[in-house]
Amino acid sequence: MTNPTYGPVATTARHAKRGARGLRIGSALVALTCVVPMLAVVLAAVTGGTDTFEHLAYTVLGRYAGTTLALVFLSAVGAAALGVGAATLVTLTRFPGVRLFEIALILPLAFPAYVLAYAYTFLFDHPGIVQSTLRDITGWGPRDYWFPEVQSLGGAAAMMVLVLYPYVYLLTRAAFLQQSAAAYLAARMLGTGAAQAFFRVSLPMARPAIAAGVLLVVMETIADYGTVSYFGVQTLATGIYTSWFLLADRGGAAQLALCLLAFALILAVLERHQRGDAQYHHAGKAAIDMVRADLRGAAAAGAVVLCAVPVLLGFVLPVIVLIDMGLGSEQDLFSHRYQGFIRNSITLAGTAALVTTSAAIIIGYYRRTSTTQLAKSATYAARLGYAVPGGVIAVGLLVPFAAFDNALDGFMRAQFGMSTGLLVTGSIWLLVTAYMVRFLAAALGAYEGGQSSIHTNMDAAARSLGQTPLGALRRVHLPILTPSLLTALLIVFVDTMKELPATLIMRPFNFDTLAVQAHRLASDERLEGAAVPSLVIVAVGLLPVILICRQIGRRRH
Question: How many separate domains does the chain show?
Fold first, then answer.
């Protein structure tokens, strides 16, 4: 009689157990990696002594916090007004060019805010084209007129609004398209005017999407370093970099990072609470498409202007200015030096995209196949990184690994008379880890969006055919999820190309990227030169925008 222990069913069961154990361990390691920077920042801030914090509190902390809050408020309000207004016009009305604006309004998303800052400084600063032309025409001197200062808190907020409003626009537009007109029509039948019905019914139903878009704007604003540092706006993000590098005060940097971390985590908790409480459902089984209002005359012209202004200011004009700046510079994009910048950028972005997407697959699939507390906690930890600025993650990783490098180097010197140097902190792998922590939530969102379309019956069918969970992932899930995985890879690739604070703090010696080169040239007031690497970053940033545009084109009503 054959021992069933050695049969194919038992073999499959053993493979399934090993696969489940591998997923569990992998998810735990990814989650631990995401949590380590936050814990390290807290530990370094607490053990850094109170003298540093007291000095910060009496000198710069209030100014940093106040400026950060003011920048967040201005950016959030501006992006909300622009994004909701644009989404309302292109979704609920008809006017000349509405289909074109439906796509074009996404284009500013390709710009990092700091690149937009370089373009508008070149255009509007005192020696720039606009003011020089004004002085030539009028004969005025520098003190004979007033002109808005672009390098200011208001200028930084304007840059944020122009590049970040597409987050609010995309989510609000999707919310309006998914709404059924039943509630709106019921309000109209009860004698409510069109505008009143929109503000009382349609807009409140889209509130969760609007809040999610505004939260993304806030997260990106507090994480920004390039724009505020170039404009001389002192925020918590610039304070971290100044304390770490210019003042060599690691404790002060960690304590500023803890303040920024606390702010980011409060926002993440608020978003989770808001998303959990604010839920809207369509009454009835049939969804009725929203009826678009036809705009004519002055109303149509006003709609065209309102939609054209953010596209012109956020994409068309900056591209023209950057091309003009680049043509007048002495930067050679095809030189050996620039080829090195491009190679380094692509190496980092490609490696980070592969590592981050692989981590998203591990976390996402483990969450699908397990209902344990570990699976839920790992998913939450993976999403936490997007709420944390790159500078905070950089400090959180450098503190423990720098201590490890120093301890290892001291041990090797004492025992073997040799130095290991910066074994971990001097490699690109720690920087790739920072990118993974920062952008894992974006990759996980793209993966889970595709995974939700795979019915659980397909998993059951795969298991009935003898597939282990890992076998079902490899042979069923991954082939179906190819478009979602490519989207995740592309998003992380482009976000890594644009990331500046983590790259500035953690890059290995003499390992510069396009973003670092653009920042260095702009800091040296060589804006024409900064335009060349900036244009390459924008060109790469257009890739996910084109992908989004294609998806919107397929879903048009």
Answer: 1
